[in-house]
Amino acid sequence: DAAVDQKRWTLNDFDIGKPLGRGKFGHVYLAREKRSNHIVALKVLFKNQLKQSQVEHQLRREVEIQSHLRHPNILRLYGYFYDQKRVYLILEYAAKGELYKELQKCKYFSERRAATYVASLARALIYCHGKHVIHRDIKPENLLVGAQGELKIADFGWSVHTFNRRRTMCGTLDYLPPEMVESVEHDANVDIWSLGILCYEFLYGVPPFEAKEHSDTYRRIVQVDLKFPSRPVVSSAAKDLITQMLVKDSSQRLPLKKLLEHPWIVQNADPSG
Ligand SMILES: Nc1ncnc(NCCc2cnc(NC(=O)Nc3cccc(C(F)(F)F)c3)s2)c1Br
Question: What's the complex ipTM?
Answer without folding.
Answer: 0.98
